[in-house]
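Issue 218. Parser rejects a valid record. Input:
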Amino acid sequence: MAGQQRFIDEDQKLELLQRMEAGETVSKLADEVGISRQRLYEWRDQLRLHGNLKSRRRGRPARSTAGVGEDLPLQSAVDQPTPQEKVLTKARRRIRELEQKVGQQQLDLDFFREALRHFEEDQRRSSAPGETGSSKSSKR
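Output the parser choked on:
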């Protein structure tokens, strides 16, 4: 389906979003209808932000047959992201940054747990052979 655009009407989009919210995997849904996962997320965000799924045209605006004196800033204003979209984009970026930090912290934590486990095993091995009844009690 490379290079071919697929038209999916609003009812189909809503059905896909309902299935997505019900727990079906985004990858499975995207593969099923031949679209990208990102497109599903865009539709979801569009629905949440604007309450509808009317698509905004993307890409280069169509050539205008309007005269030189006519105003065209309205078209460029439509293509600009809304303040809500800007906030959403910024929030997503921040979430990604925090997820990366959490992931790194988890790796650090796993490393130190493993190091502690090795240290405790070494402690047990070194104290086990020479211990008698009056051995040191370990604190935990």
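Fixed in the parser; the record now loads. The two ends are 62 Å apart (CA to CA).
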